[in-house]
Design a protein that fits this description.
Layout: E1 15-16, E2 19-20, E3 40-43, E4 46-49, H1 55-58, H2 71-80, H3 83-95
Bound molecules: iron/sulfur cluster (SF4).
Length: 96
Amino acid sequence: MQCLTLKKGVECAFMTRKGCNFNGGRCHAVVESCEGCTKTLNSDEGIFCLVVPHPAKKWTTGACNFATHLKAAVVEEAQKLNPLKASKRAAGAKMK
Ligand code: SF4
């Protein structure tokens, strides 16, 4: 259902006929780490994320997986950090 409160017109899973169903009834504003992301929405009440209602939570365990401003860096890091594949490749090379 489309949001009728802070992000008017944006499709949201938390919006119901009775109003916003999210914790406290309103989204949280974006955090500093979100700066540069294209998935933000400026409104009179602040800057909000178009994808998630609580942006700070998306950054608690690392980079937000929806962030558009970090995509290249995240992919690069994922390619570097894959010790399981590296060990399998190394084991495969030894068998030949
Ligand atoms: S998608 Fe992630 S980085 Fe972008 S505004 Fe939302 S929470 Fe912030």
